[in-house]
Design goal:
- There is one protein chain.
- This protein is mostly beta strands.
- It has one domain: OB fold (Dihydrolipoamide Acetyltransferase, E2P) (Beta Barrel).
- The protein has strands spanning 10-20, 23-33, 40-50, 61-66, 76-83.
- A five-stranded mixed barrel has the order 1-2-3-5-4.
- A hairpin with a 2-residue loop joins strand 1 and strand 2.
- The radius of gyration is 16 Å and the shape is globular.
- It starts with 9 loop residues before the first strand and ends in an 8-residue tail after the last strand.
Amino acid sequence: MSEERKSRKSLTGVVTSISGDKSIKVTYFYKVPHPQYHKEIRRKTVLHVHDEKNECKLGDKVEVMETRPISKLKRFRIVRIIEKAPVVAGE
């Protein structure tokens, strides 16, 4: 009996908060058309993401993937860091 895994949702967003050990918040921006006026409206969703190696920093652009529930709110995990945040000279 071979069961094939279903495809999992994969999203791209920006790290907006480091909320604890192995936990980050990623903001995912998208656009939807207004129902009456048909202008594109910017929306955002904040995802609670599992970062196993604590390698993400604020401002990093990351790809996340849906996974089994890891905690009360965490339902996504880091796949890869697409782009590192620019380093400020004062840090």
